[in-house]
Amino acid sequence: xxxxxxxxxxxxxxxxxxxxxDETHFCRTCAFASACQAVGYGKPELRELHCLVEHVxxxxxxxxxxxxxxxxxAIFAVRSGTVKTSMVDxxxxxxxxxxxxxxxxxxxxxxxxxxxxxxxIALETSHFCRFSFPAMSALAARMPAVQTHLFxxxxxxxxxxxxxxxxxxxxxxxxxxxxxxxxRYAVRGFSGTQFQLSMSRGxxxxxxxxxxxxxxxxxxxxxxxxxxxxxxxxLEILDPAGLRHIGRSLLPD
Amino acid sequence: xxxxxxxxxxxxxxxxxxxxxDETHFCRTCAFASACQAVGYGKPELRELHCLVEHVxxxxxxxxxxxxxxxxxAIFAVRSGTVKTSMVDxxxxxxxxxxxxxxxxxxxxxxxxxxxxxxxIALETSHFCRFSFPAMSALAARMPAVQTHLFxxxxxxxxxxxxxxxxxxxxxxxxxxxxxxxxRYAVRGFSGTQFQLSMSRGxxxxxxxxxxxxxxxxxxxxxxxxxxxxxxxxLEILDPAGLRHIGRSLLPD
DNA sequence: CGGGACTCTTGATCCGGATCAAGGCACGGG
DNA sequence: CCCGTGCCTTGATCCGGATCAAGAGTCCCG
Lengths: 253, 253
Description:
Two copies of one chain form a homodimer.
Chain A: H1 3-7, H2 33-39, H3 45-51, E1 53-59, E2 64-66, E3 74-80, E4 83-88, E5 94-100, E6 105-106, E7 119-122, E8 126-132, H4 133-142, H5 144-159, H6 170-187, E9 194-196, H7 201-208, H8 212-224, E10 228-231, E11 234-237, H9 240-246
Antiparallel strand pairs in A: 1-8, 2-7, 3-6, 3-8, 4-5, 4-7, 9-11, 10-11
Chain A binds a DNA duplex through residues 167, 169-170, 200-202, 210-217, 219-220, 232.
């Protein structure tokens, strides 16, 4: 993998979105772009980080990236597509834990038990950067910047559970969810106001601890209030400030 | 700190509970006992880990261990007492994030933003081991066992958010909460069936996303069903299996 | 001693969202 | 083409737990 680069110069700092057609460039979408910046572009150490990445995919919608109980060997950065993680409890009910967009990392919660505690399911055709974890943590032991980056990724993930916290109304949850999605798209260079909801209403409902009917109703209400435009899974946020205000108690800042 | 040990031999593997009167022994309650085991008792590297610990306290009930916005410099392992962490949202409402018992670690979620995102408040007189985080991560860069341990602590914390997940009934939440507390006490060598609820009904309610009245009612019902014995904050679990069964959908295994 | 603040418990009422039910639409296969 | 199967939307009803309210016990402080 990336054999061209192992002998030559590393590419320039990548732009936000990787060109799928050119596997030889450093993956710009992957969450380790910031680790690379920390190490410093052009530094020889970057090559080591670069070389332990393996591009995997495509996974079609519905396919498992990993499953509950699989031995933990690697973490995955989403390059394209969307993933949901979910657990199935003893009663057989699914519990959606999160959605992961391009640039985000899945698998971090498997470090400790060394087996994946949840399923990761592609919601649409998706590609990933696979990072062997043993290799990664060996590298982290030699490169403080990589160690720091891993600590930060883990710590950040700890803070992101807040969307489902508290006894909040369906409106607050939904508004916060849409605002959060928009921000996460925006931070990677996508539009933060116009995007595709790649998950079903049922998945959203499950994630937000609501009934699918309630999700549908709230979206309809938001539309009739001029906050959003929805057509199936295509979403446009017409009034970001209004939406943010409704969900303010669940959002940072 | 620990100057006696810096010159002499390290103490034997400590017993589960630190003797508060003897600050010179390695703190057995603190969560890094397992890191010490990983390094290997008696190894000279252990001294380095040992020496970056600072014992702090006592904090009386109601005192802040750290506050939202404080610069992140250290993590804390609870040696004795109990701590709650909570955020205050824009509306001024408190949100309890978790309770931490002896042996558990607080502050990990501050690694990324480098400022504490929440308050940590002692619920009763408490003592802590304070680990300077810069020193700790420098050590981790040289000692893979310490790095691994930190990764595991973080990853474990990621998995522990499950008690508040899902649309579960008040009974399920409460049963799971009590069972979880019992397990966490048991794992540190305390009784897992007889212990003190060091937090108020209001704190439990806030944490479980219930009203305080509901918590009170559920506890009364559990008592009348012979599942538990409660007298104020003193709790005894009379039927661990029954309780576990009620909360099964929220509990691991 | 008494009074105020706080916590806990129990009762009565009310409401948000779950649940049940029905219908529309898009898609794929025979 | 029709039919089956998901997914989504909207309406009607119901219930668990929030909220309001009252009272008891405890502790601290004057």
